Amino acid sequence: MAETQDNLLQKIKDQGDLVRKLKAAKESSGKGKSATNSLQDLEEINRHLSKYSYISGFVPSKADVELHYNLENNLDFRKYPHIKRWWYHMQSFSDSERTLFPVNHPSYAIFNVMQGKKRNFDLEIQEEVSKLLALKAQLGSEDAAPSKFVLKTPKGTRDYNPQQMTIRNNVLQKIITVFKRHGAECIDTPVFELKEVLTGKYGEDSKLIYDLKDQGGEILSLRYDLTVPLARYLAMNKINNLKRYHIAKVYRRDNPAMTRGRYREFYQCDFDIAGQYDLMVPDAECLLVVTEILNSLDIGKYVLKVNHRRLLDGMFETCGVPADKFRSTCSTVDKLDKSPWEEVRTEMINEKGVTPEAADRIGEYVRLNGSSELADKLLQDEKLSKNKSAVEGLEGIKLLLHYCELYGIKDKILFDLSLARGLDYYTGVIYEAVLTQPIKIGNEDQTVGSIAGGGRYDNLVGMFDSKNKQVPCVGVSIGVERIFSVLEAKLAAGDISVRTSDIDVYVASAQKNFLEERMKICAELWNAGIKTEQSYKKNPKMLNQLQHCEENGIPLAVILGESELKRGLVKIRNITTRQEDEIPRDNLVEELKSRIEVLDIKEMNGPIRK
């Protein structure tokens, strides 16, 4: 589909600005200014890196290595935030990792900077002017024959009908109830953050961050999760202790799988405990919170997998993985829930630079799972028992499993060495809740995968503090979109029913010309706090009114009739049983309240209200 005219006009404006900058740069260079590492060159590189992670796109290449070598070490990064981000990313790669980068070709202007050559401004201006003319030609063709506009939601997003929204609200309310039961307070943060806040926190997933166009001097990105904004919030406000929950939308430039609850725009429900506390006490409560939520939602059998980042680091070290490859290897291990070991092993060797011998030793460990007995066994392992990180992680897991036993949730916990969680900021215990049985979606049984995950991140807040002051944190995020998908599948299969309206009473009339009397009764019931509605037609048919009650699950109807009103009475009809009772008009509110109290209404996926 062709672009909208506003977008095209903005592109023409931006392209025109670029041409003008190039002409100004050409004029400056003609006055004797050096091209290599000049202001214009650096601005060109910074502008390029505002759109891409690396010189040739979103994957590091030999071009990045060459440019990193040619640029001066004493750059003033305050003027070039995107070069700064890229520079420190490049610094983190070892020499052996750089040798594995592919050979990709950068743009013409940046290629000149890399080569230390004087820029051919005439050629660059000619290229950019050609692009500008092409955009203007496209605008002219659109004016002549406007394209047909196709109504649809953007890729990876969706609308929600009343039934789906009822499911969502019901789920979120149950989750909030658990959060509040454990003393959590609610906060909110902006939907977008400074790009520098998010950069370098998500490892390989950083490429999924949505960057926003510069609208006023600040380079911004849509939030990827709710954890990094929390860390920024704690550091900015000098908060040392907080138990908070946060329910909001986040955004990821991922490949969506709509039927399995993977979107580009989706809700996260986070529960986090920040502060200096004794080992594994808040961590165990986070696991308890997950079990309480999943039990209340009753979406199926599940298991909570736990592991420890210190154990993983110790395991990698004893297996012969270099320290600078721990995080990238961890990201690969994290794929074991979706890919077989052979595929993971191949990626380790071919893409991460792990030796085949080290990969095979890792494979012996990551296939293990169990309980505290497994932790005891690994503490006796000849290699792991001599590694400080591994021992620290195993002792932590043992203590966590003990606390889970005290909370009565030991049967839900599985110590699993394949659990890695790819995010860079985790420092201690990590965990993930997974449904153990496939869910029927359409005509297929599909594995939903992880429905909750989290862990400890003790160093994240310090990244935002000028004095590197640390605030230890642990938390969990509930994957509500996947939970919504499971419940929507159950709704489609008829396993659950949903009331999209909370109306308890419908005010109906059996004859004509009762609109004003119906309005009076509705006002009286609304003032009494009773959920009520009526027809917006002056003289609705009785059959249509009762049918509306049945279709929308409204349990009671107040029926007005001329003879009853003359005697000071009204009728109350039970829609399900069709029983009608005459009661005094003056006692209507009290009678309705008492009947609503004893109604047998089954809510969606929840208890019966009595």
Q: What does this protein look like?
A:
It comes from Bicyclus anynana. Residues 156-487 form the Aminoacyl-transfer RNA synthetases class-II family profile domain. This is histidine--tRNA ligase. Its EC number is 6.1.1.21. The chain has 610 residues and is of the alpha+beta class. It has four domains: 5-140, Glutathione S-transferase Yfyf (Class Pi), Chain A, domain 2; 157-299 and 476-496, Bira Bifunctional Protein, Domain 2 (BirA Bifunctional Protein, domain 2), CATH 3.30.930; 301-436, Bira Bifunctional Protein, Domain 2 (BirA Bifunctional Protein, domain 2, 2-Layer Sandwich), CATH 3.30.930; 499-609, Rossmann fold, CATH 3.40.50.800. Helices cover 43% and strands 16% of the residues. It is built from 22 helices and 20 strands. A nine-stranded mixed β-sheet has the order 1-4-5-13-12-9-6-8-7. Strands 15-14-16-17-18 form a five-stranded mixed β-sheet, sandwiched between helices. Strands 2-3 form a two-stranded antiparallel ribbon. Strand 17 (569-574) and strand 18 (580-584) form a beta hairpin. The longest helix has 25 residues, at 5-29. The model is unreliable at 32-37 and 601-610 (pLDDT under 50).
